[in-house]
Amino acid sequence: MNAVARAPRIASALFALAVAVHAPSLTAVAAQAASPPPNATHSGPDFSLGFRSSLLGFGLEADKLIVGHLGARVGFGYFKFNANHTQSDIAYSASVKVSSFQALADLYPGSRKSFHLTGGIITNPLTVSGTGLTNSGSFKINGHSYTAEQVGTLSAAGKFPSVSPYVGLGFGTPARGNGSRLEFLFDVGAALGQPTISLAATGAATNEELASDLQAQTATTQHDVRKYAKVFPVLSFGMGYRF
Predict the structure, then answer these.
(1) What is residue 43's predicted lDDT score, i.e. its pLDDT?
(2) What is the pLDDT of residues 23-59, one digit of tens each?
(3) Is residue 31 included in any domain, yes or no?
(4) 10: Cβ–Cβ under 8 A, 6 or more apart, which residues?
(5) Does a structural domain hold residue 6?
(6) Domain span at residue 2?
(7) Same domain, 168 and 218
């Protein structure tokens, strides 16, 4: 058989050899092309609504994942209760209101993961108002005794700053994956700011000594409170639903 006649057979053999050599590589390329990219398994808007129970009260929260490592959320909490409390030697019947709005940004070290570091702002988280109580018929103000008639109505008020920076960390993400739509929420942190205390008495308008002692007592009470309330702590649990 001459060379011309053998040429087609040689070409076919070379082609078969080439296919056999490169088959594994071609198979891997085809599999890679067919598989979805790492983040293509999720669907939906990466948005969630949640219910929280925390030191900021009971409330709702909306959370949105902007990009893989960054999310934003807003929320509102409210709770109110009454209690009797003694502060700096004066007993009060107090009303405590927890009511705040939160605007927060979450940084996720792992893209689309649950753990996050948080920063943002929180409006006045706590307001306290109270009326002085006496069983003996007198009040001790700045170390001096005054009758209930001299003092009149003794009132106290305390509140945190109108807006405070917040820092914290927690778990929970609106990112949709292949798991459940329900998510467990947990955060711990603090609003950075100290409370301001004020005292007033109706009898101080006509009693200069009482008015002076009230100012001194206000400074003492605020100092005593601020020794412990250097920040407003936040501990929060909740459940969210991913859309």
Answers:
(1) 57
(2) 454 344 444 544 444 444 555 689 999 999 999 999 9
(3) yes
(4) none
(5) yes
(6) 1-35
(7) yes
The Cβ of residue 157 has, within 10 Å, a number of other Cβ atoms equal to 15
In which band, very low, low, confident or very high, does the pLDDT at 177 lie, cut at 50, 70 and 90? confident
In the chain, % of residues over pLDDT 70: 81
Long-range contacts, 104-107 (Cβ 8 Å, 24+): 104/72, 104/73, 104/74, 104/75, 104/166, 105/70, 105/71, 105/72, 106/63, 106/70, 106/71, 106/72, 106/73, 106/173, 107/69, 107/70
**What does the pLDDT average to over 112-134?**
95
Residues 66 and 96 in one domain: yes
Regarding whether 28 and 107 lie in a shared domain, the answer is: no
Phi, then psi, of 12 in degrees rounded to 5: -65, -40
Cα 91 from Cα 102, distance rounded (Å): 33
Look up the pTM and report it. 0.76
Task: Fill in the amino acid letter for 101.
Answer: F
* Residue 147 to residue 142: CA distance in whole angstroms: 14
- Look up residue 59 and give its amino acid: G
Tokens representing residue 206 in the block:
């006509």
How far apart CA 188 and CA 16 sit, in angstroms, is 65
